[in-house]
Amino acid sequence: MKKIPLIITALLLISAIFVPGASAAKLATTIRGDADGNGKVNINDVTAIQRHCAQLETLMAKKQTLAADVDGNGYITIDDATYIQEYLAEYENTYNILGVIYYDPYDLPFDDD
Ligand SMILES: [Ca+2]
Ligand SMILES: [Ca+2]
Q1: 23 alpha carbon to ligand 2 midpoint, in Å?
Q2: Which domains, from first to last, does the chain contain?
Q3: Residue 31's beta-bridge partner residues?
Q4: In whole angstroms, what is the distance from residue 8 CA to residue 21 CA?
Q5: Which ligand lies nearest the alpha carbon of 32?
Q6: pTM for this structure?
Q7: pLDDT at 102
């Protein structure tokens, strides 16, 4: 009869290890369109993407590369800057600029060449 509480205890311990969302606590966040990583989306983010595309400076931090890839196609291009400009002009927001992006900070960033 003492085996039953032992089994229940073991099951509780196992379930505690595999709780859904437990790994989500390790995820970091960024804001779609916030290419310079200051927590806001404005014309400076457009400029950061333009400078990245012109190879004047490179967005390196994963937080920034994910935020700058507004359309999520894996590349930072002038189109991503244009989508932010359209959002700032209150023209359209097709790609949910200001949306929260969750990511694993320990995964390597994508290759944005
Ligand atoms: Ca910003
Ligand atoms: Ca893109």
Answers
A1: 27
A2: 25-103 (1.10.1330.10)
A3: 100
A4: 22
A5: 1
A6: 0.73
A7: 96
